[in-house]
Structures are given as C-alpha cells and as structure tokens.
C-alpha cells in the first residue's frame, strides 16, 4: 500500500472513532436547528450527513438560525451580572490582570510614538483588546503552546516577557531573540511556549492544528494549543484547512478568534455574511463553540477555562470568538479615521474599554487606589523610555546571521550567496554602516 493510501486509511479510521460532539456553553441550541414543523420520525443514514427526512421543500435561510449568544460576566459599570458566574479570583490575581493590561497599554502608547518619531520602523498597538489577551492567558497553563497572529502581546506580558525583550525585538538588535530577522511586534519565545509570529495571515492556523495533533499522540497529554487569529484572517484558505483538520482529526486546539470589527479598513459586515466566526463552528465544521464579550476579562477567563478543560478531556477542538473593538489604527501604516467616525471610537475607548470595566469592578470591591495606579504608570513609562534609549544604541546582529538558522546545515546555494555578499561588502565598505553591526 502506498504512503498516500496508508495516510487516507489512517485518517478515515481516526474520523470513524470520533464521538458525537458535546455542546458547551454558547453553542446553537438543538431547537434552533429543527427545520421540520413536526418531530422527525426517522433519520437519513447517508455517509455524508445524519439528518431527519422532511416532506416540505424549503430553502434554509441564515435568519432561520438563532445567533450564538455572547457570554459575559461584567456589565459596562463593572458589576457582576450573575453572581454564580463570578470567577472568585483573589485580589492578587485581579490586580495582576489590571497591572498587565495597563502596562501593555502604556508601552503601546510610547512605542507607537517612537515609530512616529522614526525610531522604529513599524508598530501595532493592542488598544481595546487587552482583556481578551489577559483573560485567556490567565486561564491557561505555561505548558500550553501559543500561536499568535500579531495583536496578542498581552499573552506574553502575562507569561513574563520583559519590557527589554519587547523593545529589543522592535529594534531588531543583537539581544532580540529573533536576531533581527522579523518585523517589529513579531515576537516569539521558546521559554514561554509562544511560537514566533509570522506576517502572512492565517499561516499559523494549520501549523497550530498540526502541533495539537502531535500533542494528542503523546501518552497522557496534559497540554493544549491556543491559536489566535482575527476575523479577517478567517477568510483565508488556511483557516478553512485548520478548522476542518482540527474537527476531523480531533485535535486539542482552541481556535481563538479576536473579532474586533475591522480587518484593516474592511468592516466585519463586508468580511462575512453569516453569524460571525462562531457561527461556522457547530454547523459548518462540527466543532464545539463559545462566543464571549472580549472586553470583559472575567468572561474571557471563565470561557477559556471551560474550553481548555473540554479540549483536553475530549481531545477535540473549540472555536472561541471574543467580540471586541479595535480602538487603535490597524498599525502605524493605517489611519482609521478615514473609514470610521471618531465618535464610534470614543465610545469603545471609554465606557466599553476593558481596562475601564475592570477598574470599576476593583473600585466596587475596594481594591483600587488611584495613587498607586498613577505611580505604576509613571514607573512603567520610565522603564520603557529608559529601555528605548538602551535598545536603540545596541548593535545589530552580525549580517552573516541572515543566512543562518533556517537549515541545520547551510546548503550550497546559501553558501554561494553569502560568499558573493562578502565580496560585495569588502569592495564597497564605505557604503554600508558596518559599525552598527556586530562583527
């Protein structure tokens, strides 16, 4: 039997072993999927679908489905809507959540300005999405593997990525863990189980599913994979491949969509016509699904804990959609005021801002001190500004490193290219800032 035929046989056997999905909170209720006016008396048994027979011919329209509800814990004023959903986190944990969100927000403001001053080449802020980062990261274990897109810096903050590591990466200097080979904000850390970000949209999604499948094959696996992506990235072909492989192979992966309303300048109503990204999970791919208020750090925390427990217990994926709003421009290459009104932005930057909500909660609990917050922000600003002055003076990695770290042994064509560049630089040294590079 050929390798291909063996593979097909293996995948078919795996698919046949899958049990029917158990619905988790937020999935479409069964009643919303019943298209017959009478209870079904018998079911079709086609290999491609198990469904009731009906005698009435009709088209099924999107509006025939109830939209997947949005789970939340806190309202806009920071009050717990249902006390049974309070995660009962300690003051220490809640204060860390708040400080990490404020640290990220403060660092973003300074590095955004640094790019505008020409000190770094590019930057992307996380304004308005801090709760989805911190809430999800807090519910995970360090052994869980993260695949990010490019707007999940808060996950790294929670896991202990330092200010100097963020800034060294943005400058691509000799202390950058990526050795200057990536654009700014394309972070990665083997120590923190955060796979280095790559620019092309959605490439991380099938990679994450593959990593989750490998984990599934480990005896007594106790870790999952979390793959973050935006609603715009979900339009890419790689997203479909990831969803389908995750479902059919039963992979312990949480497919975490940050639906912030805009894919650069494309609003979500032009990006898709269905019920968001969550709507694709239960009916489209047969994946357990949950949708949450991504500006509510407790809702994200509770939902991620449930999703993680489910995916490890069942060895199956979860589609997780966090609804939020991208307060910032897409990046320093974008001006969002050209395609959305300033008044719209202001609502989400004040009343509905995740930091504001958590702050109000802490005030109600008697856990908030205005003076301490002011001093904390001052301290973060001081550290960030000091690190910028240090990082921008550091040398760049040796230019020869651009040929390294792709292959275990450098192939002949790269050896030839490196030799050609050596000769070129030797002949034209006066045209290159070699003093800025490590020799």
Task: Give a verbal description of the structure.
With about 450 residues, the chain is α/β, with parallel strands linked by helices. It has 14 helices and eight strands. It has a six-stranded parallel β-sheet with strand order 2-1-3-4-8-7, with helices on both faces. A two-stranded antiparallel ribbon has the order 5-6. Helix 10 links the parallel strand 7 (about 290-295) and strand 8. Helix 3 packs across helix 10 and helix 6 runs parallel beside helix 7. The chain starts with a helix and ends in a 12-residue tail after the last helix. The model is unreliable at about 1-40 (pLDDT under 50).
Summarize the structure.
The protein is of the alpha/beta class and 439 residues long.
Number of helices: 14
**Helix and strand sequence:** HHHEHHEHEHEEEHHEHEHHHH
Determine the mean pLDDT: 91
**Radius of gyration of CA atoms, rounded to a whole number:** 24 Å
Which word captures the global form?
Answer: globular
Unreliable stretches: 1-39
Sheet-strand content, in percent, reads 5-15%
Q: What strand line-up does the widest sheet have?
A: 2-1-3-4-8-7
- Portion of residues in helices? 25-40%
Assign the structural class, choosing from mainly alpha, mainly beta, alpha/beta, alpha+beta, or little secondary structure: alpha/beta
Number of beta-strand segments: 8
């Amino acid at each position: 039997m050929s390798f291909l035929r063996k593979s097909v046989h293996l995948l078919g056997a795996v698919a046949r072993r899958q049990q029917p999905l158990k619905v988790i909170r937020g999935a479409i209720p069964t009643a919303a999927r019943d298209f017959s006016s009478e209870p079904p008396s018998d079911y079709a048994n086609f290999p491609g679908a198990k469904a009731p027979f009906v005698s009435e011919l009709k088209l099924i329209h999107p509006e025939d489905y109830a939209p997947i509800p949005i789970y939340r814990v806190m309202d806009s004023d920071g009050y717990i809507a249902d006390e049974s959903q309070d995660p009962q986190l300690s003051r220490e944990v809640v204060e860390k959540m708040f400080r990490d969100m404020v640290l990220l927000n403060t660092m973003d403001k300074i590095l955004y300005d640094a790019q505008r001053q020409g000190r770094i080449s590019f930057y992307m802020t996380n304004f308005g999405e801090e709760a989805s980062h911190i809430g999800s990261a807090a519910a995970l274990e360090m052994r869980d593997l993260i695949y990010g897109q490019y707007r999940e810096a808060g996950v790294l903050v929670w896991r202990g990525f330092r200010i100097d590591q963020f800034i060294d990466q943005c400058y691509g200097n000799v202390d950058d863990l990526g050795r200057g080979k990536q654009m700014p904000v394309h972070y990665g850390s083997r120590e923190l189980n955060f796979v280095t970000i790559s620019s092309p949209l959605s490439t991380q999604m099938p990679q994450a599913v593959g990593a989750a499948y490998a984990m599934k094959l480990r005896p007594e696996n106790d870790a999952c994979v979390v793959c973050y992506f935006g609603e715009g990235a979900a339009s890419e072909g790689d997203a479909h491949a990831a969803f389908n492989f995750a479902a059919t192979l039963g992979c312990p992966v949480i497919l975490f969509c940050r639906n912030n309303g805009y894919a650069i300048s494309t609003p979500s109503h032009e990006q898709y016509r269905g019920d968001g990204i969550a709507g694709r999970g239960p009916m489209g791919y047969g994946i357990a699904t949950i949708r949450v208020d991504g500006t509510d750090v407790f809702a994200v925390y509770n939902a991620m804990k449930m999703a993680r427990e489910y995916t490890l217990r069942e060895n199956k994926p979860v589609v997780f959609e966090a609804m939020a709003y991208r307060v910032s421009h897409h990046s320093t290459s974008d001006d969002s005021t050209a395609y959305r009104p300033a008044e719209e932005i202001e609502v989400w930057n004040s009343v509905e801002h995740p930091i504001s909500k958590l702050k109000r909660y802490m005030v109600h609990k008697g856990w908030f001190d205005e003076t301490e917050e002011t001093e904390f922000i001052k301290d973060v600003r001081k550290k960030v500004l000091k690190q910028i002055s240090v990082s921008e003076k550091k040398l760049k990695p040796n230019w020869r490193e651009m040929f390294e770290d792709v292959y275990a042994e450098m192939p002949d064509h790269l050896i030839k290219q490196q030799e050609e560049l050596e000769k070129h630089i030797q002949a034209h040294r006066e045209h290159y800032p070699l003093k800025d590079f490590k020799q």
